[in-house]
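The following block was generated as part of the benchmark described in Methods. Ligand: magnesium ion.
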Amino acid sequence: MSERRIIHIDMDYFYAQVEMRDQPKLKGKPVIVGGKASGRGVVSTASYEARKYGVHSAMPMAQAHKLCPDGYYITPHFDKYKEASEKIMNIFRGYTEIVEPLSLDEAYLDITHLVRPDLPASRIAQYIREEIFQTTQLTASAGVSYNKFLAKLASGMNKPNNLTVINYHNAHDILMNLDIGEFRGVGSATKKKMNDNGIYTGQDLYNKSERELIHLFGKRGHGLYNKARGIDDSPVKSTRVRKSVGTERTFATDVNSDEEILHKIHELSDKTAERLARIQKSGKTVTVKIKTFKFETFSKQKSLRDPIRNETDIYNIAYSLYTDLKDPEVPIRLVGVTVGNLERSTYENMSIYDFI
Ligand code: DCP
Ligand code: MG
Ligand code: MG
């Protein structure tokens, strides 16, 4: 397999962080999200402050209360987590089509095609983390490497709110010092069997021959032998084809000035063009959405004969849609521009972003 660049992104203490964002008095406090202590509730997750008390995911709530009696206990708000999750997945898909979500809060991204000498994978990961924070006010950790196994390992190494790179220089040392339980696919049963056979670290695993590992673990032996060597050829499996690319912004205060709103629409058109260029797509529909100060949402769409992708074309259509849509009396809080009905770009409709 040729050289790849993979990012794994995972939100930090995800459910708890969402709750702490929405209730600022919880900042810096031990926060535990989970079911009720009565009955059989378990901990969904805990803030890093709560983890210091030994509280962790899947622990019975009653036990968490014993370990951390002064913690702040919150029952989950799944709609909020879902909303944040959709936002981050959308951000990922603005960078690459090859996104494989693993759960609400994490995904693998194959960004091989985006990397340039002046734009290393780590910088792209940093941009993504910044965009997540701007959009959701939540922090994420990212791991960057040349395969999925190492990218995921990296994202967990310096949590929370960090970026970690595993490259050909440091991979071997990191793997040799790794606890055997940290290898992907080694659950508690396998870990016990490993320990029973004298394997506690990556180094111990590395020292076993492939034959021995196949003898011990059957078909998985080959994969384990490779993992100890940092080899993992599994592809990032994107789960869906992207149908539209859009960006939206909420104003700090409700706005009624056409000038200000159109300025924003211009920025959003640029941003959308940039995203289309990154994934080399053009689209045949443009949609403008506005949300009023009363949280009512209106949108208007135009279908085109030929696909477009450049910022001027998008802006011109968005401009006319906006003027049809906007009631001069009603201030708005949010505006969005989306290009949909996507298809692969041809040379004629490329934008300036293709040439930088
Ligand atoms: N989750 C859950 N039950 C579990 C594990 C996780 O309900 N046994 C939920 C709550 C977590 C979310 O999934 O917030 C994401 O899981 P992670 O394993 O990514 O853990 P966190 O994001 O909470 O913490 P971190 O990634 O910082 O270690
Ligand atoms: Mg997480
Ligand atoms: Mg996760």
